[in-house]
Design goal:
Endonuclease III, domain 1, DNA-3-methyladenine glycosylase II, 11% strand, DNA damage, two-stranded antiparallel ribbon, 6-stranded antiparallel sheet, globular, TATA-Binding Protein, EC 3.2.2.21, alpha+beta, Alkylbase_DNA_Glycosylase/TA, 17 helices, HhH-GPD_domain
């Protein structure tokens, strides 16, 4: 069923009247009053599974699950910064959005929640995947339609531990982002991803303080200089999008795959060059925890067109090898 916009009274809108979406016969939203939308997906939906890949660690200032079952996220949209809150209620999704980017976020709510995804295109060729696919009917691949907000944290995650990357993301966004519109900023202390010019002006010592080496910071600086061109990749076919991203020195197949999985909802963008994934896939599908990228790709070949989904299902199955090899050792470059 198609989504619909609806006015929702708030402390601000009680005095000023119901607030809806401009161009739909309602007044523009006032400061602090949300635009709202209710959308009913025609299939099962697990918000945590769909939106989970957008979260960069438990302290991510751009993403916050709350005890009431809501998921909050901030974005810098073509219309400006915005905050989105989504919650599942009786088979429907209720959404509220604040800020200049509110309408853009609500218009693309179905895409964010996997409306363009086609899970029925996946055919399991292994019992583990068949069982996991059946047990996770609410899994769909998100499509944010925004490149830079996924590209920069993916660059930060290159060749370091996730804890290091999450710390760098948290520190840089909190310091250089802007407070999130609506209650997310004041009450949840969330922030909006900095604009490209702000990333370009971060001094070298602040990158160092955040634990980001010169190679990764230089790659981010090259990317933000052509941010508009890179954002265009969100409307491309995933392979074309990856080729455009990889024109930037420092962005390779690992980073481009991690980006288009989120920005483009790419079901076949399997991540190569990952420290753990080949061993996880090898263990799950062939009992070989020492598999490399080549063997991983060979094992995933029957899922051509759906290899990223297959990898996600393997990760969700919990059938991962016990850790015996040493973890990657964090590097404290701020102490150098």
């Amino acid at each position: 069923m198609a989504g619909r916009y609806a006015p929702r009274p708030t402390r601000t809108s009680v005095r000023g009247g119901a607030v809806g979406v401009p161009g739909r016969g309602r007044l523009p939203a006032q400061q602090g009053s949300p635009r709202t939308r209710t959308w009913t997906p025609p299939w099962p939906l697990d918000l945590g599974l769909v939106l989970g890949p957008l979260r960069r660690g438990p302290g991510d200032p751009t993403f916050r699950p709350t005890p009431d079952g809501s998921f909050w996220r901030t974005s810098r949209t073509p219309g400006g910064p915005g905050t989105l809150r989504v919650a599942a209620r009786a088979g429907s999704v209720e959404a509220e959005a604040w800020g200049a980017g509110a309408e853009w976020l609500l218009d693309r709510l179905p895409d964010l929640l996997g409306a363009q995804d086609e899970p029925d295109a996946f055919t399991a060729h292994h019992r583990l995947l068949a069982v996991t696919h059946r047990l996770r009917p609410g899994l769909r691949l998100t499509r944010t339609g925004l490149v830079m907000e996924s590209l920069i944290p993916s660059i930060l995650e290159q060749k370091v531990t996730t804890d290091e990357a999450y710390r760098a993301w948290r520190l840089l966004v909190r310091k250089y982002g802007e407070p999130a519109p609506g209650p997310a900023g004041a009450e949840l202390r969330m922030a909006v991803f900095p604009e490209p010019r702000t990333w370009a002006l971060i001094p070298s010592w602040e990158w160092h303080r955040a634990g980001v080496d010169s190679k990764r910071s230089a790659t981010i600086l090259r990317a933000v200089r052509v941010a508009r061109r890179l954002e265009e990749a969100a409307a491309m076919e995933p392979e074309d999008a990856r080729r455009r991203l990889e024109l930037i020195p420092g962005i390779g197949p690992w980073t481009s795959a991690e980006t288009v999985q989120r920005s483009n909802g790419a079901p076949d963008a399997v991540t190569v060059g990952d420290y753990h994934l080949p061993g996880i896939v090898g263990h799950a599908l062939a009992g070989n925890r020492n598999a490399d990228d080549d063997e991983m790709l060979e094992l995933l070949a029957p899922y051509a067109g759906q290899r990223h989904r297959a990898a996600r299902l393997i990760l969700l199955s919990g059938n991962t090898p016990p850790r015996r090899a040493p973890r990657m050792t964090p590097r404290d470059i701020a102490a150098l």
